[in-house]
Amino acid sequence: MNLKFPIYMDYHATTPVDPRVIETMLPYFNDKFGNAASRSHSYGWTAEEAVNVARERIAALIGAKNPKEIVFTSGATESDNVAIKGVAEFYKEKGNHIITTQIEHKAVLDTCKRLEKEGYEVTYLSVGPDGLVDPDDVKKAITDKTILVSVMLANNEVGTVQPIAEIGKITRERGVLLHSDAVQGIGKVPFDVESFNVDLASITAHKMYGPKGVGALYVRRSKPRVRITAQMDGGGHEFGMRSGTLNVPGIVGFGKAAEIMKEEGPAEAARLLGLRNRLLAGLEKNLDAIKVNGHPDKRLPGNLNVSFSFVEGEALMMAIKDIACSSGSACTSASLEPSYVLHAMGIGDDIAHSSIRFGLGRWTTEEEVDFAVDLVSTKVKKLRDMSPLYEMHKEGIDLASVQWAAH
Amino acid sequence: MAYSEKLIEHYENPRNVGTLDKNDDDVGTGLVGAPACGDVMRLQIKVSDEGVIEDAKFKTFGCGSAIASSSLATEWLKGKTIDQADTIKNSMIAEELNLPPVKIHCSVLAEDAIKSAIADYRAKQAAKRAMK
Fold first, then answer.
1. What is the CA radius of gyration of chain B?
2. Which residues on chain A are in Cβ contact (under 8 Å) with B60?
3. Domain-located, residue B132
4. Range of B111's domain?
């Protein structure tokens, strides 16, 4: 066995930078250090040229027709903020209603909450037990005041992939803009801004084997031409939508990561799906009473969110500390609240407390998956042996019928 | 979260995991907490005719702190009289395991479990005397 501990299975949180990406970035820290906004010498031109290559590569990855539709930011949180606040501000004469979902990333939800305080109306659509948004619900929620619909491409916790193309058909027909936080899904599941009718999309480099601290916002330039009010004032960089000197090495790395993703993404997705199936099959073979959270098929290939009933998530993570993963358990969050995503899916708090999210990625191996299956199975059994709930379950007691003293 | 060595030691090698016969007159059982809250503790004591706790067992669904708190509680209970056991406070458990502030509720639950087991034992004994 040649395993490096802890085994990284948290690829939804972040990814290591691909060595090919690092290599591409390096010259832009010293030899080619110019400011992409410097128009008077070759240092600046070289940097600008490199940024434009990155723009083209990222545009190609998401199917954007014009590289100028890619606006570089500091990451997806900023992209979400600029997209939603920028649209809300620019189109406020047209309407004040925004539609989103209950399972969005906090960068979307908290931005919407801020806008509510400023007088905007926000509809937070519920999702099904599999985490799917019903396009029909989007259709019904649109009013003549609606200016924007924001639905994520894939959920970061349960990996459910949303029917963006169907939603895009509706928003285009109704003349409402569509934003998608596409961070988790880019390069892993099909996404094409043209055929999906997406008008704005947030993406980030560090979830696709690029560096942290650089992201992008796709802003459609034609049919329709989307306008946003800049949220950062300054030198008017990025076509006036995002001032601030460009992070050239980061952008170069982002571009390289996008190029690799475009070439290798489909094959990688197939490989990860195989590994995920292997992980789940192994766990199901060894353990009873486990439940996959999220849609069985419409999900990110590298995502497995699974609840081990009668075992608490944080205790399990302590027991499997040779694997770096995460849990929807309240005990692992600063707020002491279980996952709001699982809650929105109608999953009981007891199941949420027992959930573990495995995120597989580019360097996950079969050997690592097999190690995880063995370790998790052993530790779940050990913890169940000390769980009063598992004992009651085995005795045939319906835990839902017990009068628990909530505390 | 950074846990004390003692807590991790109890979590990794929990003492007295198991089940006593809850129908035995000499056994008191406390079941506290709720699955939806993320922790359920079942603590059992077996009391001798002299009123001394001769055995204690637990099973806990909960985080590492909850498991360690209940493990420590059973260790402390063994050999104590019922009255001595009644004086165990959550603060003593929290201090011994150096629980972080967000985990204090685990020690509260352990104290509740002790109190609940003692109450169950006393109720059984009272019922037994009433039968005589």
1. 14
2. 386-388
3. no
4. 5-125
Q: What are phi and psi of A262, to 5 degrees?
A: -65, -40
Neighbouring C-alpha atoms within 13 Å toward the C-beta of A110 = 6
* Residue B63 counted as domain residue: yes
Mean pLDDT of chain A: 96
Crossing angle of helices A366-385 and A248-286, in 10° steps, is 50
Among candidates A330, A386, A406 on the partner chain, residue whose Cβ is nearest the Cβ of B60: A386
Note the residue count of chain B: 132
Which residues of B are known catalytic residues?
A: 37, 106
Tell me the residue ranges of DSSP E strands in A215-317: 215-219, 290-292, 303-308
Q: Count how many domains chain B has.
A: 1
CB pair distance less than 8 Å for B34 and A405? yes
φ/ψ (deg, to 5) at A239: 60, 30
Chain A contact for B61 (CB, 8 A cutoff): yes
Write down the pLDDT at residue A338.
86
Its pTM stands at 0.94
List chain B residues with CB under 8 Å of A314.
63-64
State the ipTM, two decimals.
Answer: 0.94
For residue range B72-92, list pLDDT tens digits in order.
Answer: 999 999 999 999 999 999 999
CATH of the domain at B33: 3.90.1010.10
**B1: confidence class by pLDDT, cuts 50, 70, 90:** low
Does B48 map to a domain? yes
Query: Cβ(A289)–Cβ(A309) under 8 Å?
Result: yes
Tell me the per-residue pLDDT of A247-265, one tens digit each, with 9 for 90 and over. 999 999 999 999 999 999 9
In a domain, B43, yes or no: yes
The whole-angstrom separation of Cα A343 and Cα A323 is 25
